[in-house]
Amino acid sequence: MIKYLVLVMLLFQTILSSAQVKTAKNINYAGNAEEKNTLNIYYKNDSVKNKPVLIFIHGGSWSSGKKETYWWLGRNFARKGIVTVIINYPLAPNAEYQKMANDCALAVKWVKENVSDYSASQEKIFVMGHSAGAHLGELINADPKYFQHAGIKNLIKGMILNDPFGLDIYEYLTEAEKDNYYYDFLRTFTDKPAVWKLASPLDYVNNIKNPHLLFYGSKTYDAIKIQTPRLYEKLKANNIPVEIKEVKGKSHVPMISQMIFGGNNLYKDIVAFIKKTSS
């Protein structure tokens, strides 16, 4: 009976907190009518001002995925007091990585110019990505040409990379098995090794100035298990605040799908990182 009452109370609290979360959907951030350039915003309907903002860039091998899939991420973070923006961006084969990155930078620009409408602060903008989305997030953070193209300075307060794929896409495409994934990735990065170098965030690591929180799964792809700690070591050597966490027992997709549950430990780490970095 006691267990039943506890479950009922937890369900009631979940419903109550969900009711406080508002959603603004399908806002275009690029001044066009394209669905690929839209975003959804999740925010708590309360009196708190100057909340931090988290922009999430989804994964999907640069060729699949959409913002609607991650509604639970938006609601979970919003309930924790973080205004959350989940974006679409153009995908392969209709776009290569530079177009994707340019549009992600435009999304950050839109957030900067409009977050005050959602009781959030443009001084507290964080970017989080999973897999290919983490690659794009770190690319626009590390290579200054993308924000230059958008006409703004890099204003990202901190980066959260969840099982980032492609931090050194040159190394991966040079050494990887020539399987279906390999040929799929060529649609995004062409077959030119010089382009692969330009697309590798690790080649721009000396430009990075903001704090980082890095996650990778103990059962994820080898390239991620090699390159994520390498980014950590390079940032640490440059005296950039950085934390890294290996998540035991998780492979690539479960590294993000585990966050369907609002009590997942990654939320605790991310919220603590955002609060610490925002103060």
Description of the structure:
- This protein is 43% helix and 21% strand.
- The chain is α/β, with parallel strands linked by helices.
- Strands 1-2-4-3-5-6-7-8 form an eight-stranded mixed β-sheet, with helices on both faces.
- The radius of gyration is 18 Å and the shape is globular.
- It starts with a helix and ends with a helix.
- Mean pLDDT is 94; it is low at 5-17.
Keywords:
279 residues; alpha/beta; eight-stranded mixed β-sheet; 8 strands
In short:
This protein has 279 residues and is an alpha/beta fold. It has helices at 2-19, 71-79, 97-114, 132-142, 145-150, 169-175, 180-189, 193-198, 222-237, 254-257, 265-278, and strands at 21-28, 38-44, 51-57, 83-87, 120-131, 158-164, 212-217, 242-247.
Q: Kindly state the number of beta strands.
A: 8
Which class of secondary structure composition applies to the elements? alpha/beta
Shape: globular
Radius of gyration: 18 Å
Helix content: 40-55%
Task: Determine the strand fraction and express it as a percent band.
Answer: 15-25%
End-to-end separation in angstroms reads: 44 Å
List SSEs in N-to-C order.
HEEEHEHEHHEHHHEHEHH
The residue ranges in which pLDDT falls below 50 over 5 or more consecutive positions are 5-17
Strand order of the largest sheet: 1-2-4-3-5-6-7-8
Characterize the biggest β-sheet. Answer: 8 strands, mixed
